[in-house]
Specification:
This protein is of the alpha/beta class and about 250 residues long. It is built from nine helices and nine strands. The chain binds iron/sulfur cluster.
Length: about 250
């Protein structure tokens, strides 16, 4: 009899993924579903999503969901759900455009209030679903559909290091940046996601995980090349590691 080594996590819905080949969103869906299952919190979890590629995650992760209209209102909605239902585990799944561009005000204020929610932030440096436009995280010199010649700091500003920015706020929480380019980094990303849920469950504050991800379609790279770019280029600009732990000063 063959030994079963890998199986579908109970909280991962049996549904074909509607992401481009090589996109990191599929990996993230699996990791979050695994963590929710291992922590046994599926019945208490409420996920909040906006629109864009990240907004499709409700199809794949088994828990209750709220979809907010448009980009940017996700963390404001998470605050409301958590305050009305404090016994629920409330979490968001957000891309660069949602969390760091249109929703930057909502994100900063929710984290500044120390709302006890969990945030999964997908940094792939683009507005993916709408055609690969410049995002706040786009690197200097990186070409997008709205800056074909590459991002120029003089006219478009510098890339925003979201973990570093949020870690300066005085509220209590956990902040870690991980990447999805290698098996070792993916395992670390899972640990970070788990920790971000545990901090909320323990009432210690918010949990925030940034995941450096590949968007091969907008990078115009093959999936393997896009993964390599995440490790070789993106992680150089946005260093991996823990940026904040409840009760401690900024660490990175
Ligand atoms: S556009 Fe980018 S982020 Fe969106 S599904 Fe395709 S590869 Fe993934």
């Amino acid at each position: 009899m063959m030994k079963e080594i890998l199986k579908r996590p109970a909280n991962l819905v049996r549904e074909p993924l509607r992401y481009c080949p090589g996109c990191s969103h599929g990996t993230i869906s699996r990791l979050v579903a695994e963590v929710i299952g291992e922590l046994g919190i599926g019945e208490k979890c409420v996920g909040i999503v906006g629109v864009g590629c990240s907004g499709r995650s409700w199809r794949y992760i088994r828990c209750d969901w709220v979809m907010v209209p448009g980009h940017g209102r996700t963390l404001a909605c998470a605050t409301a759900v958590k305050r009305c239902h404090p016994d629920n585990i409330v979490w968001t799944y957000q891309g660069d455009g949602d969390l760091a561009s249109i929703g930057m005000a909502e994100s900063i204020h929710a984290i500044n209030r120390g709302d006890k929610v969990t945030v999964i932030f997908v940094n792939n440096t683009y507005f993916g679903a709408t055609g690969g436009q410049l995002a706040p995280t786009t690197l200097i010199g990186e070409s997008t559909s709205t800056c074909l010649e590459g991002r120029d700091s003089e006219t478009m500003g510098n890339p925003i290091d979201v973990c570093k920015l949020l870690a300066t706020l005085d509220s209590e929480g956990y902040i870690e940046r991980a990447a999805l380019d290698t098996p070792a980094h993916i395992m670390q990303a899972k640990k970070a996601i788990r920790k971000a849920f545990e901090v909320q469950m323990n009432g210690e504050g918010y949990g925030f995980v940034e995941l450096l991800s590949a968007c091969p379609s907008n990078l115009h790279l093959k999936p393997a090349e896009a993964m390599k770019w995440v490790g070789d280029v993106l992680a150089k600009k946005y260093p991996l590691g823990v940026y904040k732990t409840p009760g401690k000063e900024v660490q990175a």
